[in-house]
């Protein structure tokens, strides 16, 4: 069997679009599954947009997601001479021809078609020039484009897309398309095919927007005498209003970087994105790398458009709630040493990282993460909602605090009193903390929840969180005492 070779050929845009990332993920999975190779090819023929930064944005996105490739990056622009040579080969074999029609002539025909409400298609004026006519035009030095000679007659291009099934396009509906511009620049459609042939691509797995190119590309494969790859087109990703998601209309939310900056775990994003248009055939939603590679298949791709619903759910979440849910799942379940590595940059970003968390306070740090991760959704939550664990200048959920103090103004005196009980202990353990809290509540004739919830507020800044006795014991006696004392001021 021939080796599976797939490719991810982004055009440089400066960022990795989540739709592009999904394409990359599916190709990566397919290569891994079949022990094949993934080729990264930057389709940078639009030289104006292809700056170093615009390429870097994509490569960084792929690396952050953990998607490795086996070959490349190759740069399409480096192969321009080869693309041109292919066009000239087609020309010499009669599979393509020079077209001398001027822009004005073409425009006049286009307008005429619009006037008579007929479909415009190149009329083939230069398709069958005889050798004398051709020579006459060539000697006058007229500029020309190279057009592909689409077969005429009743036939059609037919192929089986692995997702969309049997597809046919009649020859009569395909115009003699341009493969080289008058400026001698090969066109994308041709370059893409020549590159895929050279890179020995066996499976073209790409977005549904490539589907309309496929019949013309198949004609090019045939004319170039190359075997056809398998084609599999993936459904588009649409928003809740069924509009294609784009940076222009949706902003940064469609870029991988956005998720990176907001505290996503890379694999969680991979896991979310692969489910946009692919299904394992059962109701599983969470996959380890190995599970996903085993479960992935082109047959599992769905034809229905995938909906990226960034509007659904709780407005405090910044993206599709399913993405948040999957990320939260990974936050809660990955090994805590791994989580520690991922939280580090989030704390560094806001200046509350302490080197000791990797040295003598490593155990404390990891246990803290374990305690607080239950309620968190992103890595950034550790730096914001979890700030009180790592810094003394944290903000308090003021409304929640007033709710407590409003009902029991005495807490202002009680909490410093509680502070002294904790200060008197040689060391706080959860059991001791529970005993002290209960005795304290009883002494004041209130339910234990009253001082405990208020203490939670002033110690952690949050109204909810892990078991408070654990917090008393773990956050550090000095913090407990200082913060409870300060509640009296
Ligand atoms: N460069 C194209 C794009 O970014 C890739 C098309 C293809 O996969 O053939 O849309």
CATH architecture of the largest domain: 3-Layer(aba) Sandwich
Proportion of beta-strand residues: 5-15%
In the residues, how many domains can be counted? 3
CATH superfamily of the largest domain: HUPs
Distance, first to last CA? 77 Å
Strand order of the largest sheet: 1-2-3
- Got a strand count? 12
Indicate the overall shape.
Answer: elongated
Radius of gyration: 32 Å
Q: In words, what does this structure look like?
A:
The protein starts with a strand and ends with a helix. 46% of the residues lie in helices and 11% in strands. It folds into three domains: 5-69 and 235-330, HUPs (Rossmann fold); 78-189, Alpha-Beta Complex (Glutamyl-tRNA Synthetase, domain 3), CATH 3.90.800.10; 395-489, Orthogonal Bundle (Arc Repressor Mutant, subunit A), CATH 1.10.10.350. With 489 residues, the protein is mostly helical. It has a three-stranded parallel sheet. A three-stranded antiparallel sheet has the order 4-5-8. The chain is built from 22 helices and twelve strands. Strand 9, helix 7 (214-223) and strand 10 form a beta-alpha-beta unit. The chain is elongated, with a radius of gyration of 32 Å. The mean pLDDT is 94. Glutamic acid is lined by residues 9-11, 43, 192, 206, 210. Glutamic acid (GLU) binds next to loops.
